[in-house]
Amino acid sequence: MTAAIIFWTLFWCQVYHVDPAFALAVAHVESRAPGQEFRTGLLAGKWYGPYNLHRDFRRRWPEITTIPGNCRIGVLALRGSNPRKILQRYNRNFNESYYQEVSRARAHYKRVVNYGQP
């Protein structure tokens, strides 16, 4: 499951010109649980993971229930140049703690994405 999320996130990041480490960090923070890097499917009865997209978005994007579709819409929502503003737009419950969590996860995924590259 994790490999599919990483694959589709990297794919859509290339299409939409989004930093893959940032996108993977958001997916991780939005969907993590103890012992799990990412969760998928219906979370808490109204959110679809790994990008934690509200079920009401199915009207416009029915594909959010699938991993490729959820990654596409999640990455699409992360376009922009200012991570703080992007996250404020992405998560209505944005706060400094959330921003710091995403920043820490981004540093981790930057190492993962750049693995084996100079």
Pick out its properties.
3-stranded antiparallel β-sheet; 118 residues; globular; mainly alpha
Count of extended strands: 3
Helix content: 40-55%
Written as H for each helix and E for each strand, in order along the chain, the element string is HHEEEHHH
For the biggest sheet, the summary is: 3 strands, antiparallel
Structural class determined from secondary elements? mainly alpha
Strand content: 5-15%
What is the strand arrangement across the widest sheet? 1-2-3
Overall body shape: globular
Instruction: Supply Rg.
Output: 13 Å
What kind of assembly state do the chains in view correspond to?
A: single chain
Number of domains: 1
Parts with pLDDT < 50 across at least 5 consecutive residues: none
The termini sit apart by 28 Å
Put simply, the count of helices is 5
Describe, in plain words, how this protein is organized in 3D:
With 118 residues, the protein is mainly alpha-helical. The protein has one domain. The protein is built from five helices and three strands; from the N terminus they run H-H-E-E-E-H-H-H. Helix 1 packs parallel to helix 3 and helix 2 (20-31) packs across helix 5.
Task: Put the structure in a nutshell.
The chain is mainly alpha-helical and 118 residues long.
Ordered list of secondary-structure elements with their pairings:
Elements: H1 2-16, H2 20-31, E1 41-43, E2 47-49, E3 53-54, H3 67-76, H4 83-90, H5 96-113
Helix pairs in contact: 1-3, 2-5
